[in-house]
Amino acid sequence: MDTLQLLGEGFLGALSLANLMWVVVGCLLGTAVGVLPGLGSSMAVALLLPVTFTLEPTAAFIMFAGVYFGGLFGDSTMGILMNTPGQASAIASTFEGHRMALDGRAAKALATAAIGAFIGGFIASIVVVFAAPVLAEFSAKFGPAEFFALAVFAFAATSTVVTDDMVKGLASLFIGLGIAVIGVDGVSGAARFTMDSPHLFDGVSLVTVTVAILALGEVVYVGCLDRHSSGGRLIRPRGRPWLTRAEFREATPAWLRGTAIGLPFGVVPAGGSEIPTFLAFGLEKRLDSRRRDPQFGKGAIRGLAAPEAAGNSTTGMAMGALLALGLPISATAAIMLAAFRQYGLQPGPLLFERAPDLVWALLASFFIAMVVLLILNLPFAMLWAKLLLIPRPFLYAGITLFCAMGIYASSGSTFDLLLLLGVGLVGFLMRAVGVPLAPLIIGMVLGPLAETSLRDAAMSANGDFSVLVSSPIALVLYGVLVLVLVFSLVNRLRERRAVTKAGEEVPVAATV
């Protein structure tokens, strides 16, 4: 009952005129950024980070949450209408979604995606409301050894499990950790990797790095390689954007199964929504193969419904993990964690005690955001698609200008502008050679936590590092990490064997 009372108070705060406006603004920005090619919610949050410091914290995080959820809606619109997903989390939705569009059912495909995202996000929000306080109480049992184990879990999972190349994932992680240790050590007072420059004594701003890596690096990459230009034809939706009773009955089980698959991935640092969306799609495809009249490959509505619900349920639970544990499962969540720290807030059990108004207003805003996004996307998806008509030079020139203005406004230092350019070029090179960016961001965000936890644990045990594995919670985290790594390794070996077997069968077939 206390939870429902606190949620009710949160709704009173979230439904104030100012906060309601920021919910709508966040949803609008997130959907717009998701529709545009090559952009995503992580870039939008990174760009907004420097300019939201003047906002009250509750308003800022309500807007960030709207951007986070809205980005997934926009990505799906792009994938369905042009077969070009805005982010990796929307790839699974394009397989059957675009076939539905080619079959003249684009409006119904957009409605299926919007309703699925609403169901997944809404159910996840309900789970978060009741689970987040429990997780926060559980995290109160965490000491330095447990927080170090949690950081190691996040490092290993995001850099090895969800990347195609483990070496590149680890390289990205160590770049982020290297940037995180630049500056004067808070305990010893020694300058580390500052090159005797007073500008680096306070370290490298996370805001500068995120904007440079996620926004400016993308601009340079598109300008040089133009990978995101697509010759695909924009399919115009026809018909009514809602489903018949038969189609709704067909999609409902897939929505629920996708939601169930996505929920646990919201608390596992496995890269975000990519894995659960593919798992949901694969499950529906296996179930479809048992039917008398398989529909996959012809525009199966369940092949679109399940991934959409899975992606949004993962995102909803990710917000709960961020608030209760301080654990980011994706680049966007990592940037939001950095935003909490910029406001002097630390997610976890203390956040629920010290800033309950913010926490419960933010949780209430999740429900409001789902409704707002459904209203924005169900009837107006084609209007969002017209954003693709913006000339590419104008779009990316505006992003570049916004990057520079945001960094200079937050720091007032020309050195940070030079740093923005330098790190942006690093981001471009990482994209060009296929090095993932999420491990860098998470390494930089959680690096200080891991260092501080390691030092505190060792000092409390008089230099005995066995304290890191003496806690039951830490041992469980390490055990789960080992299982995740073994599972990932087995899957990759199976994929390689399948590719090798397919390659051996091709010459045989050719000779026949």
List the helices and strands and how they pair.
Elements: H1 2-14, H2 17-35, H3 41-48, H4 57-82, H5 91-102, H6 106-139, H7 144-161, H8 166-180, E1 183-184, E2 191-192, H9 206-225, H10 245-265, H11 274-289, H12 301-325, H13 331-342, H14 349-354, H15 356-377, H16 381-385, H17 392-411, H18 414-432, H19 438-460, H20 472-511
Antiparallel strand pairs: 1-2
Protein name: Tripartite tricarboxylate transporter permease TctA
Keywords: Membrane, Transmembrane, Transmembrane helix
Transmembrane segments: 12-35, 47-73, 109-135, 147-163, 170-191, 203-224, 321-340, 360-382, 394-411, 417-446, 467-490
Characteristics:
512 residues; mainly alpha; two-stranded antiparallel ribbon; 20 helices; disordered C terminus; DUF112_TM; Tripartite tricarboxylate transporter permease TctA; transmembrane helix
